[in-house]
Known about the structure:
Residues 424-450 are annotated as: Disordered. The protein has helices at residues 3-13, 26-55, 60-87, 90-113, 119-204, 222-231, 234-249, 253-264, 269-290, 298-317, 321-349, 355-368, 370-384, 386-428, 435-438.
Amino acid sequence: MTLQMEKVAGSASKATGGTFAALRVPNFRLFLGGQIVSLCGTWMQTIALGWLVLSLGASGTALGLVTAAQFLPVLFFGPYGGLLADRTDRRRLLICTQVGSGLAALALGILDLTGTAQLWMVGVAAALIGLCNAIDNPARQSFVQEMVGPEHLPNAVTLNSVAINAARIVGPAIAGVVIVLAGTAGCFLINAASFGAVLFALHRMDISALYDHPPIHRAPGQLRAGFAYVRRTPALRVPLVMMVMIGTLSYEFQVVLPLLARETFGGTAATYSLMTSAMGAGAVVGGLLVARRRRIGPRALSLTAMTFGVILLLAAAAPTLPLEIATMVLLGATSVAFISTGNATVQLSADPAMRGRVMALWSVAFLGTTPVGGPIAGWVAQAFGARAGLLLAAGAAIGAALYAFGSLRATAVKGMAVKGMAMKGTAMKGTRPDPGRLSPIRPRVPPRRG
């Protein structure tokens, strides 16, 4: 491994243990509480948005276009959002994105409540939400380290993933009740209000307890510099390439699982809901288990991707619905393990001045690839069966793991050659090698504000 890869593993090994270690940090505890409320509202809006589009008489194709409208801004504007996160105060930037997303949700609620909603209006609102997400995602993910520091970062990332999947279970359940009682407009209005929880948390934070993040000054070529930095840094390049492969073809569950439930097992919407809930439950349990880990890094990420791929193979081969549901639990656990491990690996490997741009690329790889991978996965599942869609997902995950193993091996061989040349050159000068030049680099803990 390179020194930077060793740095990631070394920093994680020093992390304080415990499933909920990051919750000892008051700022993160406050922020996560607001996130949970807001995420439940977001999942409510996700259910309501699809229902509203269909209730307007639109087709499944139109529903796909509205969904794409939410993700395309992440694909095209995500890198600029990351640059903005590096240039500005991330806490203030998050306040702006929460207000913007809340206003978009409020507009959807008013349009729906007054009966004036049209498909193009819904599409515009979805695109505005996507634009806010393109800025919010890199800022929010980078802000986590400002709250907890490198010591608790892996645990904080995992707990955030657990919160997302817990909301994935609770939010749709609440949405079902609200739609019956108040219609889809009720979900939009509740989601608009839920952003207030995050705004409250950001306002009440102890700013002096945040780790320092001096914004970079505006200069030409900073976006290109971010791409170049990732390209020449294996500890960043390998996880991001893995995320592109897996994010494009392995995380298209919203496309494959409905077909698996209906076509393969002859089920209904309730069957699909059960599969989704099983994945969410597995993700919560798996996330809590992963939160106790003490080491991360590219090698751990490779093993996680391989395990994820094997579980996808089992899901493709499950002969009965009960076995499929059980496999979905394992699938949820391994999927959240890959996401949280990759996220923490990338954050710990990134230079603080580049972290916003790096996390923007991570968001693009994860969310921005949906408009590309969704149609591919849907076509394969429709043409060859839902099991073929799962096989495609498994192939992408296993392929990503093999790519990572090969890259790690090549980097290790190159690193050994460089070290050997350095030691040989030092010996020729008649001096002993300096251990500090060859030892793993430890991450510098940034000072706290104030």
